[in-house]
Prior knowledge:
Radius of gyration: 22 Å
Shape: globular
Amino acid sequence: MKSMRDETADRQIDSMLSRALTQQADPDAALQRRICSQWKERREMNRNKKWMTAVVASACVLAVSVSVGAATRYLSSREVAEQFEMDNMAKAFSQGDGIEINQTQTYGEYNVTLLGVASGANLGLSQPEEIEKEKTYAVVAIERTDGTPMADGTDDNEMPQDFFVSPLIEGYDPMNFNVMTMDGAATWDVIDGVEYRIVECDNVEIFADHKLHLCVMDSTFYNKNAYNYDPQTGAITPNAEYEGMNLLFDLPLDASKADPDKVQEYLKDFTLMFPEADEAEQDSSAVNDEQGIVWDEELPQEYVDYITSGQWKKEVAESKRIIEKTVMDDKGEGLYTLDFQTDLDDGSGIGGTFYFNDWEFVDGVAVDRSFYSSSEEGMCYEVIAVAEMQEDKTVTLRAYDRLVPESEADAIGIKLETEES
């Protein structure tokens, strides 16, 4: 999803990664959150499929149960791949190149089933330049235990629950090695009330001489408190004291596919997001105060002017409201998210997630804008998301859309999102 601040996105993310590389071994949660949320925003695809959508919800502590072979009523891994138009992956499962697992674990109101896993090149929805890059794909089904259909984003009164799904490698700290650092993404959809997800990341088959897992959490990104990592043995286990979903499946990849030489080559170019560092080298650009973290972040002046001039109010007045909700900051870290999905007048559909951080608010208001191509020549669709902070610290989030000349996108240097992009 593009915003009016995208022209500085690369610089901001590079800066945040640089900060991360000089953090202590126990990194600041706000830094991790900001890196992850902006990373996801840049990787979200624009139409129909939903990439790394983020919605945060609370969960209670309940026992986890495990069963094998309980997923016969679900779509098979091959059928899920077909539904997601990943024909090569469907072919891999039908020819036995993928591994069928069908293991179900239950947490709270959810049954989570690991349907299967496959590794190889050109199996998913890769970009042209990555078509030959080998990746690992895990296929997961999630349903409510009482049979109530999973939220699919079409009901304004019930936003989809976010799930973080990632392979983990014993012997490698999961804070550094998860889908967020291993070039990962996910696409999901609700079919007959069941949410199906395909998660991809760099090929972990080369680590198949290690014990491999698939973790599933009801959170936006990897939570270091959800699992215990023993640096002496390399073991990864669920933390029994963690208040939330922290399921852990075994990934039974073929040990003969392990390739220590490829692992060493992979690690040469791998960037640790949170390496151990001397305490004296911790990032000096952030300081703690009673409110939390204060960043030496400067918003672009054009963004500040856009809000203080009231220009956003004029645009909203000319737009159609898509969705509205009022939220508290569920994580206590100054992050607010708004999922949207709508049908446009030209018959196409768009959807995605807007992210707002405390530091983006100007006079209690934060605004984000995205532009999408239209079938009408010379015109495009603009989606405007507005976050307004109330005196009680709740935030009202609204999203609108309108048809505008393409020159409006050109004026702020935004490349239009299209079905092909």
